[in-house]
């Protein structure tokens, strides 16, 4: 039986949001969306506000990614919405179920030049799964439910609604739709069987597990399939940690040897994009397992491409009853390569050089981070090192910008992570270039008592641009930042704390102080600007 409710547009929207499991709002104050604030205030619904709308969307995305439920951002009309488009686009590329509610100039005056009058839909439609203007107050619960169902249906992604001023401020009676959930997509059994035969019969198979393995709650099924078929597993994105580092089938360092020697590469829950050589693994056959038919690659022809609920597909692979090749020698060869790479990395992470090499920072972080710490990457060159040297111990503990590569996620992701996990370490790894996008939102963290640790790799350059440009042209332009800039004093001025570290031996104590501080704390590490990440080996 459906429930009927009465209230203004904000109250109707919030009732529908609560029914779908939304538990907080991220926003930057704007008059067009006051009724949403009023509804939240009257019912003790948490509101977290930021200094730039992109941070609100990124915070909502962090909640969506970490908790596998809808995240909510509320943006005022016009520039409020356009400032959030990079966040929506990142959520689109990352398949994050974020709902953005926007204000909108009044419909009855449309075309007269009201404040911030703009039709948002043509801008947001290409980067959302559902975009709609709601013109009737009593239609708001229906629209919220439809938008959230679209966001949660694989392949997941953001949705957008905007409300003209008179729609959200008016009072109406409406039905609160029943929440039915999203039905799993059943895969084609023949395609799954084809994939199982290829993997089981391969001499040198490899699995690469991506973010959708975590988003689709398929971590246990992945482990079941890998163990049943005895296939080594590598991971990228939020797939990292799906198998703990000590698991005999978990690999991270031997990726080049694995992909160059494999005869079957199984890519699960991530696109065949630039991070994975666009699906070109030489003579190896490719099995591409995706959560929806829309995610099948069109630029390559996989040998098999099961599409549907990843848990169903991976469990079916685990249950394959046919013959299976022995992969013991292949796994042993990769373990030799893995151990050799780990030894090289250990030496780099212990480097005593001054200026500090980025690898040394990660050596110290590996000692400082708890197994359940949430690690957030916001940067280019500096965060590339994180992908190489950090090995998440648990799934759902790694956040990075994803394939869209948008800088500025750091403080929004930190806010969403702290709200999601009040008792865990939250550590943001930030390049000094990325710091320019969102560092002002430290003030939001301070004001709302949301402590995080921020580690800035400060080499005074745009590392991913300066070194390649010099190699190509013999010079570089627009690639320098202020050397040794005191980002820590910026954070201190905003109410947090921090320090600058110039010597490798001082890194460990500085990180300990940061994690013990209980406030937003920035460790500003002066790193060697000549240390360039080797791009050819970065397949993560």
TrEMBL record:
Keywords: Thiamine pyrophosphate, Transferase. It comes from Micromonospora trifolii. Belongs to the TPP enzyme family. It is an enzyme of class 2 (transferase). Residues 194-317 form the Thiamine pyrophosphate enzyme central domain. The keyword Transferase applies. This is Acetolactate synthase. It holds the Pfam family TPP_enzyme_N. GO terms for molecular function: acetolactate synthase activity. Residues 9-121 form the Thiamine pyrophosphate enzyme N-terminal TPP-binding domain. Its EC number is 2.2.1.6. The keyword Transferase applies. Gene3D superfamilies: 3.40.50.970, TPP-binding domain (3.40.50.1220). Its cofactor is thiamine diphosphate. Residues 378-525 form the Thiamine pyrophosphate enzyme TPP-binding domain. PANTHER family: 2-HYDROXYACYL-COA LYASE 2, THIAMINE PYROPHOSPHATE ENZYMES. InterPro entries: DHS-like_NAD/FAD-binding_dom, THDP-binding, Thiamin_PyroP_enz_cen_dom, Thiamin_PyroP_enz_TPP-bd_dom, TPP_enz, TPP_enzyme_TPP-bd.
């Amino acid at each position: 039986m459906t429930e009927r409710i009465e209230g203004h547009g904000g109250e109707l929207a919030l009732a529908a949001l609560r029914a779908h499991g939304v538990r907080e709002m991220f926003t930057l104050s704007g008059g067009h969306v006051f009724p949403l604030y009023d509804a939240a205030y009257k019912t003790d619904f948490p509101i977290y506000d930021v200094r730039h709308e992109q941070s609100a969307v990124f915070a909502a995305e962090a909640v969506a990614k970490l908790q596998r439920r809808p995240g909510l951002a509320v943006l005022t009309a016009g520039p409020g919405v356009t400032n959030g488009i990079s966040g929506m686009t990142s959520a689109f590329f990352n398949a994050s179920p974020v709902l953005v509610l926007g204000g909108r100039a009044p419909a009855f005056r449309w075309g007269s030049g009201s404040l911030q009058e703009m039709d948002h839909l043509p801008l947001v439609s290409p980067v959302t799964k559902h975009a709609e203007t709601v013109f009737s107050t009593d239609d708001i619960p229906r629209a919220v439910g439809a938008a959230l169902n679209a966001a949660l249906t694989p392949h997941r992604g953001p949705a957008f609604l905007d409300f003209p001023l008179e729609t959200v401020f008016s009072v109406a009676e409406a039905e609160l739709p029943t929440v039915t959930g999203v039905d799993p997509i059943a895969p084609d059994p023949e395609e799954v069987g084809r994939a199982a035969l290829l993997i089981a019969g391969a001499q040198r198979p490899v699995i690469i597990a991506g973010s959708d393995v975590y988003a689709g709650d398929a971590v246990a099924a992945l482990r079941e399939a890998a163990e049943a078929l005895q296939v080594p597993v590598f991971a990228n994105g939020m797939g990292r940690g799906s198998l703990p580092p000590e698991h005999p089938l978990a690999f991270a360092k031997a990726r080049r040897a694995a992909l160059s020697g494999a005869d079957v590469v199984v890519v699960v829950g991530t696109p065949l994009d630039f991070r994975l050589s666009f699906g070109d693994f030489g003579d190896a056959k490719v099995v591409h397992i995706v959560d929806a038919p829309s995610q099948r690659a069109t630029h390559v022809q996989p040998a098999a491409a099961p599409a549907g609920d990843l848990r169903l597909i991976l469990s079916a692979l685990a249950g394959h009853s046919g013959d299976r090749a022995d992969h013991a020698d292949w796994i042993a060869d990769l373990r030799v390569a893995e151990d050799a790479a780990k030894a090289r990395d250990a030496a780099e992470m212990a480097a005593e050089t001054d200026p500090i090499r980025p690898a040394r920072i990660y050596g110290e972080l590996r000692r400082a981070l708890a197994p359940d710490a949430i690690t957030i990457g916001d940067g280019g060159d500096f965060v590339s090192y994180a992908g190489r040297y950090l090995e998440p111990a648990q799934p759902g503990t790694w956040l990075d910008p994803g394939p869209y590569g948008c800088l500025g996620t750091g403080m929004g992701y930190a806010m969403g992570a702290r709200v999601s996990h009040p008792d865990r370490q939250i550590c943001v790894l930030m390049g000094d270039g990325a710091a320019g996008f969102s560092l002002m939102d430290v003030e939001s963290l301070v004001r709302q008592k949301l402590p995080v640790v921020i580690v800035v790799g400060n080499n005074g350059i745009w590392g991913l641009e300066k070194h390649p440009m010099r190699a190509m042209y013999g010079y570089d332009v627009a690639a320098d930042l202020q050397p040794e800039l005191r980002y820590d004093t910026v954070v201190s001025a905003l109410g947090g704390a921090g320090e600058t570290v110039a010597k490798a031996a001082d890194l460990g104590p500085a990180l300990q102080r940061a994690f013990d501080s209980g406030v937003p704390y920035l460790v500003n590490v002066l790193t060697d600007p000549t240390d360039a990440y080797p791009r050819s080996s970065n397949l993560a």
